[in-house]
Amino acid sequence: MSIQIIGVVGAGQMGNGIAHVCAQSGFDVRLLDANPDSLPKAIATITGNMDRQIKKGAMTEAAKAEALGRIKTGADYAIFGDCDLVIEAATENEAIKREIFKKLCPALKKEALIASNTSSISITRLGASTDRAAKFMGMHFMNPVPVMQLVELIRGIATSNETYEAVKELTAKLGKTSATAEDFPAFIVNRILLPMINEAVYTLYEGVGSVESIDTAMKLGTNHPMGPLELADFIGLDTCLAVMHVLYDGLSDSKYRPCPLLVKYVEAGWLGRKTKRGFYDYSGPKPVPTR
Ligand code: NAD
Questions:
Q1: CB distance 93 to ligand 1 below 6 Å
Q2: Eight-class DSSP state of 99
Q3: Is 190 a catalytic residue?
């Protein structure tokens, strides 16, 4: 099974990164988003990120032009008709993802594969909502996609070996390293990372430390490149909360209870970097802690 044309549903921070890396690695890309503003924004982001790679000497102007020329955008699922694989990278909400698969499946050729970039939702359940559970699996890229080395691969109970091998081979062609996880809530990376972030929000909520002291403590005390609150803003607080809900509901253990302060921030629409406010305020030249 050879993958040559790749579709991406969702052109947010992950979708544009996935499109970027696929196009840069020589694949033709079809990118779709429900929000018409997202597509030009995604192309502008990819262009800016490629310019940064050029400045660092990691890409040439010619390679940039070629890669950008491989990305086609659209709002109609018919653009996925010639795709060998479609990667779903829309908002972390099961109802939204199911709705996408309902529209996507009839537009695909019958041998096409589907992967979801979900951070936490059951791959088996998502696969069962499609017409091709054997050709469905999790392909969990890390943020920012052009920079991060890992792709977590998750097989649902019905995923065929052929599908898994094809996606694993593609991961290597994208210059990434894969780690395989079983299909349990939040897989490996977020099963470990998100409870730590949630605990950092509790630490703030209970007044144990300020935003600055919590992030400084974890950066310098545990050698993490980013503090947990800075990282939460980077991931998106809505995504963080959605993952905690999946852990709490899926494992029925109170240790995964989302911190009420995280819930409050999401209710306020303070989702982190993408809305210019989360645990830090990003409206000025430097992020300013909000607590
Ligand atoms: P985002 O909010 O930046 O982007 C989501 C995009 O999906 C938006 O552009 C939105 O318009 C689009 N969308 C919403 N409903 C849609 C629909 N019905 N059809 C088509 N497009 C639709 O979110 P993100 O951070 O890019 O996250 C996307 C996915 O990637 C989620 O499943 C998330 O859990 C996963 N993920 C996120 C991170 C991270 O650090 N943010 C890391 C790994 C995986």
A1: no
A2: H
A3: yes
